[in-house]
């Protein structure tokens, strides 16, 4: 791999363009991914926000679910934001009975944990491993992490408000997930953190 990694953005739903812009600012080459053969050509992948049940069904319809699981099992770095976090969870609470995930992170997440669309909010997020002060967290029908396994590093918890103490960012190996949407803020530090994971995995 060259010093400019190729990072796919799962382009079935969600903030695809915004993630592509953030990845470019983090010195990666972003590509939309809709087919298994496109997935095979990237060094890492971003799973954006959206509606996790719909995203899961579309991944199945496009023949992407099993290739996604295979690439995760092989060690491909993946970053999931909001619905992407749900897609990377091994266990989902408040999901549909038939809802499937890619899995890979030993965590249990709760869908729409912070409430409905009109209960979306913004809050500062202290993210372990990032310099420059707190992130501006945008939470839109966001999940939170109910529990994590021993191999999962908690990178951020909310520090104020009624949801104080809730886990909103985690990492397990080359897999990264956040409840919030850094692609919407113009602050590309989370994407830079992920691109560094992609580079490290390729060494």
Describe the structure.
The chain is an alpha/beta fold. 27% of the residues lie in helices and 29% in strands. It has helices spanning 16-25, 36-39, 52-61, 65-74, 83-88, 189-202; strands spanning 6-10, 29-33, 44-47, 78-81, 89-93, 105-110, 121-125, 135-139, 144-148, 153-157, 167-172, 175-178. The strands form 3 sheets. The protein has a 7-stranded mixed sheet.
Shape from CA axes? globular
* Proportion of beta-strand residues: 25-35%
Q: Sheet bearing the most strands, described?
A: 7 strands, mixed
Number of helices: 6
Produce the secondary structure layout.
Blueprint: E1 6-10, H1 16-25, E2 29-33, H2 36-39, E3 44-47, H3 52-61, H4 65-74, E4 78-81, H5 83-88, E5 89-93, E6 105-110, E7 121-125, E8 135-139, E9 144-148, E10 153-157, E11 167-172, E12 175-178, H6 189-202
Parallel strand pairs: 1-2, 1-3, 3-4, 4-12, 5-6
Antiparallel strand pairs: 6-9, 7-8, 10-11, 11-12
Concise summary:
It is built from 6 helices and 12 strands. It is an alpha/beta fold and 203 residues long.
Keywords:
203 residues, alpha/beta, three-stranded mixed sheet
């Amino acid at each position: 791999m060259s010093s400019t990694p190729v990072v796919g953005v799962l382009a079935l739903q969600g903030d695809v363009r915004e993630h592509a812009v953030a990845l470019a600012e983090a010195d990666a080459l972003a590509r939309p991914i809709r087919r298994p053969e496109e997935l095979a050509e990237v060094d890492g992948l971003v799973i954006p926000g959206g509606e996790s049940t719909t995203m899961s069904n579309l991944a199945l319809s496009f023949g992407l679910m099993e290739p996604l699981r295979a690439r995760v099992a092989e060690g491909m770095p993946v970053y999931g934001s909001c619905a992407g976090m749900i897609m990377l969870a091994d266990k989902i609470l408040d999901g549909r009975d038939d809802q499937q995930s890619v899995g890979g992170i030993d965590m249990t997440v709760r869908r729409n944990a912070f409430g409905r669309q009109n209960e979306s909010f913004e809050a500062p997020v202290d993210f372990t491993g990032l310099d420059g002060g707190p992130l501006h967290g945008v939470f839109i029908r966001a999940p939170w992490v109910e529990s994590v396994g021993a191999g999962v590093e908690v990178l951020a918890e909310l520090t104020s408000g009624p949801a104080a103490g809730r886990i909103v960012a985690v990492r397990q190996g080359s897999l990264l997930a956040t409840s919030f949407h850094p692609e919407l803020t113009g602050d590309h530090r989370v994407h830079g953190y992920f691109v560094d994971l992609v580079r490290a995995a390729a060494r």
